[in-house]
Amino acid sequence: MKGKLILENGIIFEGNIFGYLEEGVGEVVFNTGMTGYEEILTDPSYYGQIVTMTYPLIGNYGINLEDVESKSPKVKGFIVREKCDNPNNFRCEMDLEGYFKQNKIMGLEGIDTRALTKILRNKGTMKGIITTKELSQSEINQKLVAFNNTDAVMKVTTKESYVIYGTGTHVAVVDFGIKENILRSFMQRNCKLTVFPADTSAKEILKVNPDLIFLSNGPGDPEDLKGVIKVLKEIIGKKPIVGICLGHQLLALALGGKTEKLKFGHRGCNHPVKDMQENKVYITSQNHGYYVSVLPEEMEVTHVSVNDGTIEGMKHKNMPISSVQFHPEACPGPKDIDAIFDKFLSII
Fold first, then answer.
1. Do 292 and 249 contact (CB within 8 A), yes or no?
2. What average pLDDT does the segment 104-126 reach?
3. Which one of 39, 281, 298, 322 is separated from 22 by 20 to 30 angstroms, measured CA to CA?
4. 84 burial class (0-12, 13-18, 19+ CB within 10 angstroms)?
5. Over the stretch 129-173, which tens digit does the pLDDT of each residue have?
6. CA 310 to CA 288: how far, in whole Å?
């Protein structure tokens, strides 16, 4: 079936629809990973976004449910140059078409993804609509204006707290849309995890007396989470705190720093980051549209993006507080810097 992507700047890409036939409206972004589409589709940080894959062939190893990073896909739509209709891998359980129909996700294939990526790089990420319908300009404007992603975190966070038992360090995890492999990374280090919803009070978190508080990744603009920032201000100084991605940004805001939106974001599994302490460069997996633009006074930079010089990690000069912008747990991507989890645990 014919379909199209309508960007908010008026540019239209025509292609073929696959998956579930329901219109999708979201923020159009791109990911430069050559593999890892299963993890990308199910990463809660992509909630509310239409993801474009820059690699031209997607779906050639199918879908294996052991590889997903949450219970269901979180993307609003998915755009590829070519979808593989006949995946070939011994772990394959279903193809993209069936997975999208099952989870009510609309996909678009057959468009020039290189041209789309260049537009997003030059003009910045923008809202878009994937549809099979002929829409008037007023209908397009109405749909784009109606879309917002301010409640994204509350859509993807756990609805109630739960415990994953272990014999080691007790980590209180604040779930803003956590990836499964972050939990697994702590579990591999024998940690006991108490996972809390994003809107949990400081009193409730501190009541379990954790050794460490971890702030997870998640979708959206960190400045929208004013209640969370207030809670973090109450916790700072009482327990060691670490964070990844959105957790890193929220920590910066709670400590008096500032965040801003990147023009087109960092999304992929080939982003070089320099460790300023070790004087080494690591290749990292990243997925964020916002960054720490002004470092809090009491923090110092630990990691920097080699591509654009943005802050990729920081630590407190006096207190046990540390965070990174990239994803050390990978999935998808290289696990060069998985040792960050050991550093997190060592600050206690």
1. yes
2. 97
3. 39
4. middle
5. 999 999 999 999 999 999 999 999 999 999 999 999 999 999 999
6. 12
Tokens standing for 74?
């979180």
The full length of the chain comes to 348
Residue-averaged pLDDT of the chain = 97
Which part of the chain is CATH 3.50.30.20?
2-146
Q: pLDDT grade, residue 271 (50/70/90)?
A: very high
CB distance 181 to 187 below 8 Å: no
Q: How many CB atoms lie within 10 A of CB 88?
A: 9
Tokens of 290: 């916002």
Q: Which residues, in sequence order, are CB contacts of 118 under 8 Å at separation 6+?
A: none
Q: Are 307 and 225 in contact (CB under 8 A)?
A: no
Predicted TM-score (pTM) of the model is 0.96
Residue with tokens 């050991």: 342
* Binding region: 45, 218, 220, 246, 249, 287, 289-290
User: How far apart (Å, rounded) are the C-alpha atoms in residues 195 and 309?
Assistant: 33
Residue 115: both structure tokens together: 């041209």
Name the CATH topology of 2-146: Glucose Oxidase; domain 1 (3.50.30)
Residue 66 pLDDT grade (very low, low, confident, very high; cuts 50, 70, 90)? very high
3-state helix, strand, coil in the chain (%, to 5): 25, 35, 40
Q: Provide, rounded to the nearest whole percent, the portion of the chain with pLDDT above 70.
A: 100
Q: How confident is the model at residue 330 (pLDDT cuts 50, 70, 90)?
A: very high
Q: What stretch(es) of the chain map to CATH 3.40.50.880? A: 153-346
Please give the structure tokens belonging to residue 200: 């949990």
Phi-psi group of 89: left, alpha or beta (phi > 0 → left; psi -120 to 50 → alpha; rest → beta): beta
Residue 259: predicted pLDDT: 98
Domain 153-346: homologous superfamily in CATH: Class I glutamine amidotransferase (GATase) domain (3.40.50.880)
The verdict on whether omega for the bond into residue 332 sits within 30 degrees of 0, i.e. cis, is: yes
* Residues belonging to the active site: 245, 327, 329
